Amino acid sequence: MTTVAILGTGRVARALGERLLHAGVNVCFGARDPEAAASALPEPLSRIPTRTPDEAAADAQIVLLAVPAVAAMHATRSAGSLDGKILLDCTNSLRRDGGGPTWAPPPEGSMAQALAVAFPGHGWSRASIISAPRSCAIRRCRPARRKRSSPQTTPTRSSRG
Questions:
Q1: Alpha-carbon distance 48 to 80, whole Å?
Q2: What is the pTM assigned to this prediction?
């Protein structure tokens, strides 16, 4: 049977874990502090084994990265060897500041692309989360403001020759 390791135990990881558990998939969580993370998981998620990231990834054929984007590189390094595994990036590049969540992708364009640059030889795919359980909060996100170097104008019909 295929085993899926979910690196992280936050809202996204919990939503993924719950769906996989209900689908009958063999799943485990990977967390920096497995005991603390496991004790914080509600039913039915507390039935999912929680291990260190390298232990969780070692036995898995599929690894889902479900941590905040700022922790993605560290979580990936802590997973150990990912050779031969299917790797899915489930992060979102939100930065939380005083004004609320802001879309702040890395310079590479997406976290999956940044991971591919940082960990060459591994193919990362971006996983779009298209549905979530009712317990997950959906929040509005405002795009990051970009500075313009010069005003851009669009030619009007009358200014065209």
A1: 21
A2: 0.73
